Amino acid sequence: MKILKKILIIAAILILIDFGFELITTSPADLIMDIGSLFDSMSAEELAEDMNSRLASFEVELQYRRVDTKTVTTAFNTLTAEHPEYFWLDGSYSFTFRRGLFGIGCVTLTPGFVFDADSVPELNAEFTLRADGVIAEAETLDSDYDRALFIHDYLAENCSYDFELRELIVSKSEDFDRSGTTAYGCLIDGSAVCSGYSAAYQVLLNRLGIVCGRLDGESFGSGETVAHEWNYICLDGEYYYVDLTWDDLQTSTSAGEFSEHVTHSYFCISEEELLRGRTINEDAEPPVCVSDKYNYHRYEGYYLESYSLSEFSRLISIQLRNPVMEVKLGSEAEYEKACAELFGNGGIANVPALRYSGHRSVWHVTSDDSYVITLWF
Prior knowledge:
Oligomer: single chain
Number of strands: 16
Number of domains: 4
Strand content: 15-25%
Largest sheet: 5 strands, antiparallel
């Protein structure tokens, strides 16, 4: 016992020298843990598991010993990228590293917060309650495709794109409310930019057991090149891209009337389709997205390999009760042929399904990168 006591005393002295007297333990159990830190280090898996648990408990400071700063910061970046349910974190952090006399390092990482740290538990409870309700409704559906589509439509219907926030971000302003960049902004506030849409979609699909992640890059389909973020999902072992932000269509008429519509031009598209209007960041590791089985228009039967007025009318006729009517063309040439006939020569008035629908006017939007024509009354 005397020898063991001497060993413990020596180890305790080494810890005090190495870490400083502010780390004096307050119990025998803590002392034993500190002694163990002299000899054991965390594996990457153990670090990620511990960090996940501590973030879920709303800790505002993460401290680790015998782990280098790169390991800690890499684990933090990976964890926050894969878990957007930690919506209160803004992705930034500060850290301190101190190496003691005997080479034992101590890393302290302090995450940056979007919201006031004291308000996070209450905000998280609100977020979880809302997510639970949406998830419960989605779970009544028959397939992962139906559930992924339901979540897509729910978020697009209940959230509006925040153009003012987008301008602040593009202008690199530092003084603005960042909640619209988070899953909370999309699901609770109903106002977000692309990162908020994609984060909320990932949270809800992951909770449904559907593999869903996020990618970022740039979009240029709107005539300007801007930073952008979207999702990928896995259905029946095949990956697809989903751009929920671009499917939340917001338009205004010449009279200044504003309207918002849920569309599906970018629901379950391939990489070839995605790259018509976006670039993927070079350091990203995107999944292989080549399948078109669950592409919305193909799967729902709103797809024309080649254009004809009669076939276009037939597809419109079976969608007359839908909020919007969508038809996807099989190629750029067929898409341009359809647009020329329908909108260049007034041919839209000659579509039988529209002529006899009882509506006096029809609005439209065309998606040059997805070859989709969308109509609504």
